């Protein structure tokens, strides 16, 4: 998967590595990744592509916008709780960069206010 910015590519690579570690150790697929984890990665890919913050995206844990469905959010929490500590051994540099990205602040969310003059003609 290729994104427009290095930051988004790094976020995707981290997500994919964590899901693969979880799948390998918990589901033990014969080749690659199981169907359930692949479906989750497909879902995560769409969410990342549509992220309103783009290259300024904070880590999901620090994001003010929860774009995952509640069931998917719980699924990713389980995966990350398991994979997070193992990332230090399997992908130490990726893990360090993700940890540093955790200090990134989310951009302010613009709240659109209704235009008061648009209702005056009613």
3D structure, described in words:
The chain is built from four helices and no strands. It is an all-alpha fold and 122 residues long. It has one domain. Helix 1 (6-26) packs antiparallel against helix 2 (35-49), helix 1 crosses helix 3 and helix 3 packs across helix 4 (92-101).
Distance between the termini: 50 Å
- What quaternary form is this? single chain
Number of strands: 0
Shape category: globular
| Domain count | 1
Rounded mean pLDDT is 85
> Which bin fits the share of residues in helices?
40-55%
Radius of gyration equals 18 Å
Order of helices and strands: HHHH
Low-confidence stretches: none
In terms of DSSP E residues, the strand content is under 5%
Number of helices: 4
Taking the sheet with the most strands, its summary is: none
Derived structural class: mainly alpha
In short:
With 122 residues, the protein is mainly alpha-helical. The protein contains 4 helices and no strands.
Helices and strands, with pairings:
Layout: H1 6-26, H2 35-49, H3 70-90, H4 92-101
Which characteristics define this entry?
single chain, 122 residues, mainly alpha, 55% helix, 0% strand, 4 helices
């Amino acid at each position: 998967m290729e994104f427009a910015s290095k930051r988004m590519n790094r976020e995707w690579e981290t997500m994919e590595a964590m899901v693969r570690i979880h799948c390998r150790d918990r589901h033990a697929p014969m080749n690659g990744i199981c169907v359930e984890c692949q479906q989750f990665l497909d879902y995560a890919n769409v969410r990342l592509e549509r992220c309103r913050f783009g290259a300024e995206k904070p880590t999901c844990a620090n994001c003010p916008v929860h774009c995952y469905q509640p069931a998917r959010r719980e699924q990713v929490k389980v995966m990350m709780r398991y994979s997070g500590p193992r990332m230090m051994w399997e992908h130490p540099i990726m893990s360090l960069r993700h940890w540093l990205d955790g200090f990134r602040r989310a951009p302010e969310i613009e709240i659109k206010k209704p235009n008061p003059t648009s209702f005056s003609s009613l």
